[in-house]
TrEMBL record, chain A:
It catalyses: ATP + protein L-histidine = ADP + protein N-phospho-L-histidine. This is Chemotaxis protein CheA. The lineage of its organism: Bacteria, Pseudomonadati, Thermodesulfobacteriota, Desulfuromonadia, Geobacterales. Gene3D superfamilies: Histidine kinase CheA-like, homodimeric domain, Histidine kinase-like ATPase, C-terminal domain, HPT domain, SH3 Domains. The modification Phosphohistidine is found at H45. Involved in the transmission of sensory signals from the chemoreceptors to the flagellar motors. CheA is autophosphorylated; it can transfer its phosphate group to either CheB or CheY. GO terms for molecular function: ATP binding; phosphorelay sensor kinase activity. It comes from the Bacteria. The keyword Transcription does not apply.
TrEMBL record, chain B:
It holds the Pfam family STAS_2. Gene3D superfamilies: STAS domain. Residues 19-103 form the STAS domain. InterPro entries: MlaB-like_STAS (IPR058548), MlaB_ABC_Transporter (IPR052746), STAS_dom (IPR002645), STAS_dom_sf (IPR036513). It comes from Geomesophilobacter sediminis. This is STAS domain-containing protein. PANTHER family: BLR2341 PROTEIN.
Automatic annotation (TrEMBL), chain C:
Keywords: Phosphoprotein. Signal peptide: none annotated. The keyword Phosphoprotein applies. It comes from Geomesophilobacter sediminis. It holds the Pfam family Response_reg. It comes from the Bacteria. The modification 4-aspartylphosphate is found at D53. This is Response regulator. One of its GO terms (biological process) is phosphorelay signal transduction system. Residues 4-120 form the Response regulatory domain. PANTHER family: CHEMOTAXIS TWO-COMPONENT RESPONSE REGULATOR, STRESS RESPONSE REGULATOR PROTEIN 1. Transmembrane segments: none annotated. The keyword rRNA processing does not apply.
Amino acid sequence: MTDVHRQAFREEAYELLAELENSLLELEERPDDLDLISRVFRAMHTIKGSGSMFGFDEIARFTHEVETVFDMVRNGKLAVTKTLVNLTLAARDQIKAMLDADGGDFDAGQSSQIIAGLRELAPHDDAAAPAPVAEASAPVEASETVTYRIRFTPVREIFGFGVNPLNLLGELRELGPCNVIAHTTGFPTLEEMDPEQCYVYWDVILTTDQGINAIKDVFIFVEDDCTLTIDEIAVHDDLDHEEHHKKVGEILIERGDITMDEMNGLLSKQKRFGELAVESGIVPPTKVASALVEQQHVKEVRQEKQTQEAATSIRVPADRLDLLVNLVGELVTVQARLSSTAAERSDAELSAIAEEVERLTSELRDSALNIRMLPIGSTFSKFKRLVRDLSAELGKEIEMTTDGADTELDKTVIEKLNDPLVHLIRNSLDHGIELPEVRVAAGKPRHGTVHLSAVHSGDSVLLTINDDGAGLDAEAIRAKAIEKGIISPTAELSEKELFNLIFAPGFSTAKKLSSVSGRGVGMDVVKKAIEALRGAIDITSVKGKGAKITVRIPLTLAIIESLLVKIGTDYFMLPLSLVDECVELTRDDVSRSHGRNLANVREHLVPYIPLRQRFQITGEPPEIEQIVITEVDGMRVGFVVDHVIGEHQTVIKSLGRAYKNIEGISGATILGDGNVALILDIPQLVQSVESEAL
Amino acid sequence: MADIDIRREPAAAGGQEQVKLSGSLTIAHADLLKKELLEALETANEVVVDLSAVDEVDLTGLQLLCAAHQSARNRDKVFRVVDQGNKNYRDVVANAGFERHVGCARDNSSSCIWVGGDN
Amino acid sequence: MAKTIMTADDSASVRQMVTFTLKQGGYDVVEAVDGKDALQKLSQCKVDMLITDLNMPNLDGIGLIKGARALPACKFIPIIMLTTESQDSKKAEGKAAGATGWIVKPFKPEQLMAVVKKVLG
């Protein structure tokens, strides 16, 4: 392609040179003809400009000298003389010779001689000769990653320069993660708006490793048509995590959107700064929103950076981590005491310290728990082996697929999950997947598949075991349950309820005991183990198509969000994840239900368990009691307590060996004031009440 | 540069007017768009701009919609946009940084057309 | 629909190179040999962008930019000037006339495409 253009240039240059010769001869006769002078200049200009474009650097350099002289003539600084015309004609011949040579040899001495002559005529600085085509801009070396705040305020008339500011924003996006906030506050009303002018200005928060010059390059054409400020707001280097996150107020001050005095005035009130700033009317909401975006952006980039750096790690014995988490647990407890003491004393100074400690503690807690988080992948690979060995033993062809192996769970949870998961998978292999011949007869591939997946969902992880086997036979389950006396022959149960019977103690549908799953431990043990992890298990199935078992497990065991309640002088905790709502229970309500323990909540009857009776707590209940309604296995059950105190961060302490088997209690915690609160095991309580009722 | 099509279905004075925009809401047609929006706001009490058939929109289009909303507020009238999730429009709103969680200081009725994103 | 770009240059070789490069980039191209030719063609057909040399006979680049901005159809299109002068005076003159940006000669095809992409989006 270059050759084509070179050839085109040569042809063009020959034409120009022929024209040039004529112009020069005419110029000799009419030395004042401005039109002729500019024609000569233009010919030289074109030869120089186009020559440099297509690699005729020698010609470009040489012609530049002649052009410079004629620029002076054009501007009236030099007169056209016979000498000049002679020299220019010689130069013209020289250019032709250079073109003829086409990159080969030519008389370089002649060039120097002509240049010397021209310079004598018109002394000038050795002005910049055209540089050879610059190498395509060298890639900027990846330098450190920096977050910039760019405020871009184009002039109103920007559209008249053919500039579309949206393209510039698009270019910024190409440089790295980018948040764009348009400020519309200065807009006039429709009546006053000139629709062809630009009223917007932008804040852009950009994280890039391309350096500030790459950003400036984006705006190179509009430098004079806008106000542009680029501030470095964070450098993401190795020390990143030691930096603090800027507060919204700091960001607004840096941007000049608010003064220090205004901020301090606002800070004396106890509220989120951003809300205050808006309410006060000092800063428009869009500016605060923009500052918030910046704050968020920096946080995200840092997190991203930290994930990337996770590869560089150190090994620490697990028990040291456990110790750390225990200590953090103690700290959370003490901090709660500090906070409540500070609140009681209404001492401002102490409160300030308590708040600071609270913030630090919660950060410390989160990061300590985070350290113990491990990807579940290692467990998954163990199962692959298990499936391989077992399917051979069973004479089945089974493949195991997994996804979400990088899902993280607390190390202790992963350990405790191992046995239940093994059991569930064995069960799928044994009862679920059919023998190859059976599968083929049913029109399925010989190969059965068991799919194991893990995925985050809120503060839990969902594990699913999906097989494409025979599925559950609801009728077989019903028959078996009746035979075993688990349900009465007349019981009307939904399919879901029937499926859930397989978790009932002493239930087994296997026709004969195989070495794989029928070892006396039933699914009830699995369910208990999952519930001990404060998890839940659910099964769905389509007959002939397969079954899906879903296990929901909380991320960590050490600390839970819970609802603190009081009965008499005793405190209890209910895991918040199970709590639906709280309603009042009056004495009238109780007497109306004639001892049936049913509450009418928005036209639905909800059974409740009076905990005061259940735990045999002496004393009189208050006039109005509270029912905390929970949802367990899709069923709503209420727990009657005296008072609901509120939500609480609970560090779980085990009760110790002596109290290990107390029914309905899963642990204990120490409250801020030093009191002990017992943590209720809701599913177990519901179960034991149900079994008593049967 | 495609054309713009502005189809107005004026209601009786004081009622709701539907303004269906299609084609290019770009600077070349900005004057026209301003004129039509102003007229709609003069007569109707509620103006609903339908953007679901818009092919192209630029900054001037976004500016006009925002200004029209303000003018409507000043007159105690209602100005709304519906877009049926039109990507041609939504992408530009997002790229231009117009998406909002809260309206501007003058949005005293929480009716900012950039808030949310789902109609 | 492919966008149309006009190249106005009195140098046939530069026009050829610009046209070739833009067509490879998927654009339609209209050529003009000087400012007068360009202005006349602009009033007849619609273009999405103009790339013009500054030194041209009949009507120079600055004159062309001013003339184009006066046409309703070209009021807001991107206009890029090709300049051998790297002096700021020419750039400023062009900007004042309404140019969007500039490319300094000599340039490579990829530099041209980068600028086209930058202003056309």
